[in-house]
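Our consortium's second objective concerns turning raw sequence data into structural hypotheses that experimental partners can test. To show how far this objective has progressed, the report includes one record in full. It was chosen at random from the queue rather than selected for favorable results. The single chain below, 647 residues long, was entered without modification.
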Amino acid sequence: MEDPNEIKKLDLEVVNRIAAGEIIQRPCNALKEMIENSLDAKSSLIQISVKAGGLKLLQIQDNGTGIRKDDLPIVAERFTTSKLEKFEDLNGISTFGFRGEALASISHVAHLTIQTKTRSEKCAYKASYEDGKFKSAPKPCAGNQGTTITVEDLFYNMPQRKQALKSPAEEFTKVSEVVSKYAIHNPQVGFTLKKVGESGFALKTPVKSSHNDNIKIIYGSQIAKDLLPMELEDPVHRFKIKGFITNLNYQSKGRTNLLFINHRLVESMLLKAAIDSVYGTFLPRGAYPFYYLSLELDPLTVDVNVHPTKHEVHFLYEEDIVEKIKMQVESTLLASNVTKTVYKQLTLPGAPDLDETANTSAQDSDRTYAKDMIRTDISVQKLDKFLIKPEKSVGESPKLSSKKETKLSSVIRMRQNIEKKCSKELHHMFKNFVFVGVVNRKFTLFQSETKLVLCDTIKCSQELFYQIMVNNFENFQKIQVYPPLSVKDLLVISLETEDSGWTEEDGSKEDLAQRALEILKEKSPMMSEYFNLHINSNGELETLPCLLENHRPPLQYLALYMLWLATEVDWTSEQECFETFCRETAKFYSILPEEDDEEVLSFKTKWTVEHVICPAIRKHLQPGDKMIENVYELTSLGKLYKIFERC
């Protein structure tokens, strides 16, 4: 065996350069830091010049308070700031947070020059920096009040980072996005952005403008026309939010989301998902809204320094606050007077789209008959929405921070088989169906275009859960079983039921349960690794896989499920093992809880069918040809019109 390598302390220069690379990842990161410094300095005008997307030159000039001459020697050193003196001051910091590394980091990866003048000083001073230290001492020069920071040859000493960046044009686009967002959030400040060597401005906003006017200047009049003001103040969680969201007439193929938390430009995946879920009810797939929101929280509840680029923040009661914002977005949309009605005429496959031919001539446009109009759409709201508060992420598979990609050929073949057998006609039907109502434990009514269809809920959900098992292989969150349940006791209970098929010829129930337990204990490592179903060394069930958010399998069938795993799963070969395990698990998860009256369903079960299972079927199911046996066309609008005509 080889001896271990000696642990050595890195040179300070290497440490600083590594830290700088984490903070300044591209030109727009450096610019964001400098804009925040200019805003902290109470600037009313910020002028930015860029060359080669910011890689050759990135200059920002403001008319703020400036930097004192005596502070210039340490201004580019790490952990220097004018914002706090002791650790406790972090709790009440109300500016853009603190890390004390912005200018220091830039000086380690670029040539940094600062020219500055305060109100009390007679002239400006200019100094250059390298690796956080003076490259040249401050020299007096002419200049107006404020600060000009010039960053040249960014990443000149990090060629790998420079090569990994996008083209100058794409980097300029990202720089422009940062300037645009800060200009909208700070309408009292005038912003200009230009490319060096060009006469015009790439972006220019006036001083003392408004949020709405700047949105119009930067993103166009169409967005400004469709904006809805939104505001909410909550004394319980001590936050307030205000901003603008677009109404339902606005649709964009690209995302444009502006979120500021305590005046810092950040992203919140939780809030983004919540707002997407609201608009997803109204807008077609692939269409996105525009929104600008400014969220203000008590600084005591916010941790501002959890990300190297200050890209994220964490705060207390995050889920509760996001839920309240989501409800306010929904209320704002529903309260607006803007309505949107779309009629679509059914056409034969291959026929031209009506939108393309509507304006050609009066002769070419056919009349849309009432019997061919689709009266509902999957995005249409129902009265239930105003009576029931849906839980978050209904009908969605649980999200993981990072998904494992399986390399098992058997699982890959199972996935390919699902895709191969998928029926285009049925897939189109399920993707576009509209929920009508629950008939009983077995059947659900839905509308597919102009047809009224009866669907075998259990059979369809059974196939849905099977496909989720296959497609999410190795990527399941868990349902905690607490307290853990004795698997042997469950097996004995299952053998007492008629569904087990036990007869005296099979032998003692106790012996059968013990043998089944040994099988499941032996296979527990595999079930735990691939499916998050864990049986501990004491023979107790600790976890089950979570297949859909807000869905739990019926626990009254848990004992029978344990028996199915022991007796119905083919443990002899990999392919058959995974296939039968997924099938038996899907059968268990698709069972709806029984009531005293088999035909009567509880409110909770009906809600689960409508808001969890049916949306998941619509989104995830790839139905095979054989599933045609599980859907029954009851009638259609055309047939009903014929009946009415005879009457």
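The partners drew two points from this record. The chain is about 35% helix and 20% strand. Confidence is low (pLDDT under 50) at residues 82-100, 341-351, 353-366, 385-393. Both points have been shared with the crystallography group to help prioritize constructs.
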